[in-house]
Amino acid sequence: MLNFKLPLTPQHFRLGIFIGVICLLGFGYYLEYIEGLEPCPLCITQRFFLFISGCLGLLALLHNPARVGTKIYTTIGSLMAIAGAGFASRQLYLQSLPADQAPACGPSIDFIFQTFPLADALSILLRGDGNCAEVAWRFLGLSIPGWTVITFICLAVAWLLQLRNVHTHN
Fold first, then answer.
1. What is the DSSP string of the chain?
2. What percent of the chain has pLDDT over 70?
């Protein structure tokens, strides 16, 4: 029996994170601009954490840090993924509420940032509103934030797996 082992270095994970995030953000923009789904405040927040995680993946890929740098990138990347999963979980919670208990729908993102002071706009963005409770798309029974939670968990695992071989590949 042949035993093939493909040694995955931290660089492989960083490249995978970067390419995966580009694909996921591209799919999000496809849903927005081609399918006509308007992103809610929590969707925008999740995109932000996804974007930051992808940028960290690219930065770590280009930097190719040694052990300490890998630990720093891994810590920040994992925290971004965990925070993103938290906001996606908040949206899943809002979607699970009965219609009479869901918060009221708020204004558009553009209106929020044009009208409110930055601190208030960010608070609205992070808290979510009734728009976040709407389920506009499903795949295999999961809504977008359900898939996003899975994505962020996979990202956190990909970040943490970089620590597995950091001693042998740097």
1. ------PPPHHHHHHHHHHHHHHHHHHHHHHHHTS-PPPPHHHHHHHHHHHHHHHHHHHHHHH---HHHHHHHHHHHHHHHHHHHHHHHHHHHHHHS-TTTSPPP---HHHHHHHS-HHHHHHHHHH--GGGG----EETTEEHHHHHHHHHHHHHHHHHHTTTSHHHH-
2. 91
Predicted local confidence at residue 54, as pLDDT? 93
Q: Please identify every stretch of the chain with a pLDDT value under 50, giving residue numbers as ranges.
A: 170
Question: Is residue 76 included in any domain, yes or no?
Answer: yes
Look up the domain containing 151 and give its range.
Answer: 21-169
Does the residue 131 lie in any domain?
A: yes
- Looking up residue 117, the CATH number of its domain turns out to be 1.20.1550.10
